[in-house]
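Weekly modeling sync, notes
Attendees: AB, CL, MP (scribe)

Item 1: holo prediction request
CL wants a bound-state model with zinc ion before deciding which constructs to order. AB pointed out that an apo prediction alone won't tell us much about the pocket. Agreed to run with the ligand included and paste results into these notes for async review.

Input as submitted:
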Amino acid sequence: MTMHLLLGQTLGFSGNPLTGDWQGTVLFDSAGGILIENARITATGNGAALRRAHPDAEVTNYGDAIISAGFVDAHMHYPQTGIIASWGKQLIDWLNTYTFPEETRFGDRAYADAVADRTLDLAVAHGTTTLTSFCTIHPESVDAIFEAAAARNMAVIAGKTCMDRNAPDTLRDTAQTAYDDSKALLEKWHGKGRARYAITPRFSPTSTPDQLRALGALWAEHPTCLMQTHLSEQHPEIAWVRDLFPQARDYLDTYEAYGLLGKNGLYGHAIHLEPREIDRLAEVGAAVVHCPTSNTFIGSGLFDLMGLAKAALSIGLATDTGGGSSFSMLRTMAAAYEIGQLRGTALHPAQLMWLATEGSAGALKMAGEIGHLGAGAVADVTVLNLQSTLAIAQRADRADDIWDALFPTIMMGDDRAIRDVWIAGVRQLR
Ligand code: GUN
Ligand code: ZN
C-alpha cells in the first residue's frame, strides 16, 4: 500500500470554535503535511519533518493551497438535483409544483442511477466527500445512491423518504410498507462499507401518526441508524402541522410523541423553534442542520446559529439541494455568513470551515471519522486553491493573514476553487 504525504497549508480543528475562543481550536500550519496510509490519515504536522520521517512516502505538494478535511453536507435531496434553481415558489407550492413530479420518476432505476451518479460527481467536484441524502419513496432510489457511493468509496448516509398522506398517489406508501421497506433497506445497507442508513419520514405533514409510530418503532429496533426529517422550516408549514396534530405541544412533539426524537436524530432547517423544542433537542443530544441557501431561496427565515450553539445544540451545515440553490459548500458557508450578518454576528472563516467539516460530522455522529484532519480519520480531503479566479486572487493577494486569504474563496469560490479531492486515501484525479 502506497504511503502518501500531502504538503500545503493544513487547516484543522481541535474543538468547537462556535462556543468560546475560536483561536484555541484552530490547528493551522502554513508549511504543514498529512500522512495517509491505508485510507486513513496517520499523522499530521510540519511538512518537512514528516518528509524526513517518511522518505518512502509519495509526495504531492500543493504549495499555498489549503489542505482541509473534505466537506460534509449534512442534509440534501439527491432526487432534486435536476430541479435545483426552480423559480418562484415557497415551500408547500415548491414541493407540489417541482419536487413531487420529479421524485415520481425515481421508480425507474435507470433514471435514479443516472441522477445518483451525477449528484456524487457534482459533490466531489465541489469538494464534498460525504453527503446525507433523502431519497424518494422508491426503494430503488436508495439502492441507486448507495451503489453509486460504494463505487466511489464515499461515506454516504441516505434513506427511503416515507410519505403516506398529503402527497400524490404515486409518491405514497403506507405505515406498514414504510416500515417493511425501510427495515429491508437498512438491513441491506447500514454499516455496509461506508454506508449508513437514515430512517426518513419526510416531515410530519406527509406522515400519518400511524406511519410516524411505525418508523419510531423501527428506530427503537435499530438505534444505531440515523433518523432524518424536517422541522420548523416555514410559518405556513408550522401552522399546517398545528392543524394536523392539534394535541401536539409544538412541531417537535409530533416526532417526540411517536419515538422520533433521539440523539441520532437530524432535524433539517429548525428555524422557528420554541424554547421547549430547543431544550428537548439539547437534552437528548440531537442535531439540527443549517441549510442557509435553501432558507433564503425558498424564503423560510434566518436560522439562529449562535443562539442554538449557545444552547449546546449539535449543528451541521448543508446545501439542501434542490431547495438549496447551490451544490457548493463554499457557497453554503457564504450564505451562512450572510444570514449571520442579518442576525448581527459576523461568523469567522474558522467557524464557517468548522461547520462544513467537523460540525456536520458531529451532527452525523461521525466526529473523528470524517470531517477531521487528524490521525485516525478516514483520508477524505479537500484542497482549496485560494487564487481560483481573478476576482478572488486580486483580493487574496492583499491578505495579511490566512483568514483574510481564505475568506474571498469562501465568499466567491465555487468548483473552480477545488484544487483536489481525496476519498479514503484515493486521489480523485484532477
Ligand atoms: N420539507 C419537506 N420536504 C422538503 C424538501 O424536499 N425540501 C425542503 N427544503 N423542505 C422540505
Ligand atoms: Zn430537506
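Recorded for review: The chain has two domains: 4-70+371-427, 71-327.
Action items: CL to compare against the apo run; MP to circulate these notes.
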